[in-house]
Amino acid sequence: MGAIKLKHTSGNGAILHSPAANPSSDITLKLPSTTGSAGQVLQVASANHSSTNAELEFATASGTTINNEGDNKVVTSTSSSGTLQAEGGLLFDGTNLDVLSGNSNMRMTTSSNTPKIIFTANNVADAGKIQCSESGGGASLQFSNKNTSGTLNENFRIHTNGQASFGTTNSGYGLTVINTTVQSNPTCFLKLKDLIM
Length: 197
Prior knowledge:
- The chain is mainly beta.
- The chain has two domains: 3-60, no CATH class; 93-192.
- Helices cover 0% and strands 51% of the residues.
- It has strands at residues 3-7, 13-17, 28-30, 40-44, 53-60, 65-67, 73-77, 83-92, 96-101, 104-109, 116-121, 124-135, 138-146, 152-158, 164-166, 175-178, 189-192.
- Strands 6, 7, 8, 9, 10, 11, 12, 13, 14, 15, 16 and 17 form a twelve-stranded mixed sheet that branches.
- A hairpin with an 8-residue loop joins strand 4 (40-44) and strand 5 (53-60).
């Protein structure tokens, strides 16, 4: 195998080797007529290109363009080849997935091993929440919303045993409804048990 060594004045140098396998005929590579510019790559030009002859040229490296780049933005495809779009309304930081639109957003998270969806409505933070909590190998679903006083209250729950309750976190019947706002009767119960159709 032939080689050309370009020796540095300090002693070491760069070695240019001949092909690893014997080509079927001599190969000619013609160097560019310029030195190119920073960041460009050396590639085979389309002109005068054959199996034994190639002209080399400097060109800008091809790659994928990402529009609207920013931290934690989810990237989606576009109709343009080689172009992606970083979505300003869809963010993911490894734990939280946020869907944003104007003054409202929806956050899906699994912090503290408790999956939940938290809503911000027209700049009202924690306006609503849906949460799934593990209990004894099962899970319950809790639905909460913020009242006009700014307090986030749980108003509906599906328990691990399949029972449901409104206005209370307790179970015991197929459906329990408690309304503490009824003036004449501060506690109003609707309990359905063993209903057979």
